[in-house]
Specification:
By secondary structure, the chain is mostly helical. It folds into two domains: about 20-65; about 95-315, MetI-like fold, CATH 1.10.3720. Helix content is about 70%, strand content about 0%. It has 14 helices and two strands; from the N terminus they run ββαααααααααααααα. A two-stranded antiparallel ribbon has the order 1-2.
Length: about 325
């Protein structure tokens, strides 16, 4: 269809306006199709998301259900067997010093996460802000230390802490004091965040007379809060689930952390080692170990999202 427009004031007529009815009809049909398939696609997406969620959380559901069963019904096909055995949690606290192990894990986890976050942030800020000879080469050496497997440093670490008299120490120094020297992975992570900060802000602070520690605490740390929280939670989780270090350095039952205590429970209740196979109590203790990390990740999930979004905006 063509619409002819006449000229104004003797001017030549404007070019004809061509309206394609076929194109307009196709566009309307496309919009209607999107309106029709939109709710269906959303429904299929939610169903798929629900199925994936059930698959991922099923081991946790099974763990909770096993902790509420009798010794004979732990490995039964039924997910929940009535009556629920809530006394399993009372029994495990009476059999072993689980509360003491929980306290030890909290102390070690907080000390390890705090020290590695602070030390790694300081080193990362130095690599990001200062310009000095061989900076990139030194940073490459720091990253190269990540290539060393833990088994290589296991014996030297034990010999050092044993010489210092810290094996089986109530200060738990071998479990967290090594974090005072930072972590290569966290240095790399935080350096990327610090390098994304505008350098002009720090130069303005220097003009105003701010010292380097003041610039670090008052500018760099607040602007990278999400990254620091992510590092803190990562290390807290790593320390909370670490079995190797407590297995090497802690011999006294009263100084066990939760993973070391769980390992001791498995050995004690293992039928092949003369135990009675009380796996329902092991499951109850496992729930006590797992639940705090689930709560912490749930409360801190917005910081993970903020950190990912910030990283993406920096390219």
């Amino acid at each position: 269809m063509t619409v002819q427009q006449g000229g104004v004031g003797g001017a030549p007529p404007a070019a004809p306006i061509v309206i394609s009815t076929d194109r307009a009809a196709a566009k309307v049909a496309t919009i209607d199709a999107r309106r029709t398939t939109g709710p269906l696609r959303r429904l299929l997406f939610l169903i798929g998301l629900g199925v994936a969620t059930i698959i991922f959380i099923f081991p946790v559901i099974w763990l909770v259900s096993a902790s509420l069963k009798t010794r004979q019904g732990v490995f039964s096909d039924e997910l929940f067997t009535l009556p629920l055995q809530f006394e399993n949690y009372v029994s495990i606290f009476q059999i072993v010093p689980l509360a003491n192990w929980f306290f030890n894990s909290v102390v070690v986890g907080l000390l390890a996460a705090t020290t590695v976050t602070l030390s790694s942030a300081i080193v990362a800020f130095g690599f990001a802000y200062f310009r000095f000879p061989l900076r990139n080469a030194l940073f490459g050496l720091v990253l190269a230390s990540m290539m060393l497997p833990g088994a290589v440093t296991m014996i030297p670490n034990f010999l050092i802490w044993n010489a210092l008299g810290q094996v089986n120490s109530p200060t738990f120094a071998p479990l967290w004091a090594g974090n005072l020297f930072a972590s290569a992975f966290y240095i790399f992570l935080l350096r990327q965040f610090f390098m994304g900060l505008p350098r002009e802000v720090f130069e303005a602070a220097r003009v105003d007379g701010a010292s380097y520690p003041r610039m670090f605490w008052s500018i760099a740390v607040p602007l990278t809060r999400a990254a620091l929280i992510v590092v803190f939670i990562f290390e807290l989780k790593a320390s909370w689930t670490d079995l190797m270090k407590p297995l090497i350095f802690m011999k006294d039952v009263a100084l066990f952390t939760l993973p070391r205590g769980l390992q001791d429970l498995v050995i004690r209740f293992n039928p092949q080692a003369g135990g009675e196979g009380q796996f329902h109590l092991i499951m109850a203790a496992s729930v006590v170990v797992t639940l705090p990390m689930i709560v912490i990740f749930f409360l801190a999930q917005r910081y993970f999202i903020e950190g990912i979004a910030t990283t993406g905006s920096k390219g």
